[in-house]
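Teaching assistant here, posting this on the class forum so everyone can see the example we discussed in section. The complex has two components, and the goal was to see what a joint structure prediction looks like when all of them are supplied at once.
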Amino acid sequence: MQLPEISKKELALLRSLSTRGGRKHSGCCRCEGVRAVRELLDKAPGSVKFIAGTPRGFEAFKEIPEKSRNISEETLADITETVNSQGIVAVAETPDFAAGTPAGPFILALDQLNDPGNFGTIARTFRAIGGAELWYTKGSVDPWCDKAIRSGLGAQFSLRLRRFENLEELVSAAADFGFKQTFIADPHDGESCFTAPGLFDKSVIVIGSEANGVTCHPAGSRNVIIPMPGDYESLNAAQAATVLLLEHVRRTTTN
Amino acid sequence: MQLPEISKKELALLRSLSTRGGRKHSGCCRCEGVRAVRELLDKAPGSVKFIAGTPRGFEAFKEIPEKSRNISEETLADITETVNSQGIVAVAETPDFAAGTPAGPFILALDQLNDPGNFGTIARTFRAIGGAELWYTKGSVDPWCDKAIRSGLGAQFSLRLRRFENLEELVSAAADFGFKQTFIADPHDGESCFTAPGLFDKSVIVIGSEANGVTCHPAGSRNVIIPMPGDYESLNAAQAATVLLLEHVRRTTTN
């Protein structure tokens, strides 16, 4: 099948999405790599504007998706930062989950988490355990930036991401929907995450940044700790989230 | 205090340690960054050959360690690959744990794990939960390479690392010491890691490479799986190891 070449206008849009300003202006994001594009096509097909790929990139797809465009390896290398590009990038409208009753037993909240790799990894793990509500505060990395989407393998498109001005507003919005308990993951003290009652019972679980922890402790919040017998601070934010999320799986699969 | 300048011979050694051949030839490795150097000084002080730092690098230490040398920012930048160097690098003899009764209730085995960041992260987490025996097979990344030590924050110096020709030999050596059960972390099927009996009872827990899994299933080995309700393969090797290692903590702290 002869694909249409990517137009100058599309190319300009694709290029503009490397910056937060460009994404904000167009309300779009770009999604690189075979697995992320598959996730996008599977979970949010209506939001796809177009898919630009090289012949090599489209080889990974049994059927050429709709709205596909041909792009040369050189042009693609020029506009993306990925060293080993998989030859495919999609442009999609950024989903907007402004409101609505939260789905699932708990909300995962990221407070000023500024590493895109960690944000993406957490999104992917949260999706993998069947999570839905991934909320975050201003000061966090943009979860729709290239690197976060790559690290997340596009899991963002399967989740409901909501952004808040600060942690108090986030917790307050959750409480309005009956998610009244707040647990803060703390590296130093708190109840053990393996025994804390109600940890996933209409709750908000907050992960802060690696450097600074959470920005505040909302009234009534409780600290949970991942016990570490080696007396050695070790887990990064993504690992800590993984342990907490799998504790949810453990509780729901073994009780 | 006026520190001696690093000598030409020391500089040549430091430079040579960027390659596996250089490390093998001298039996040494290099250890970059404040936290990794602290771990080295704390856990294996006798193995330190010298520590090269810039004035900025030594600022992080209350006392200037013994065998310290002055090195210029330019020279340091020239020999290390770290983009944001912390201004300090130590050269140490690579510890050799050829034999001896294994310590701890279980052995963590990495089978052809070839990503240095993952190897280091796993070493760090294993040390943090109080683990001791980190064994690995040929085909794994060298755990004493720069990046593995950086990612591990020098946790390597607190563990007993042993290398084997292949997984059968590793499992056989473990069995000789009474570690007779082998569990393979499998992404597809097996007993749940949250309920499998005897998971940490004189056992070997094997993590394979992300791309290829384990190289073989030794006789009598059992598969364990980290349950993932989202039906979406997600956890990388370091995350999978984190979940399994924290399950050990959970079992020992809550039962």
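For the discussion questions: DSSP finds nine helices and eleven strands in chain A. Residues 237-254 of chain A form the longest helix (18 residues). Think about how each of these relates to the inputs above.
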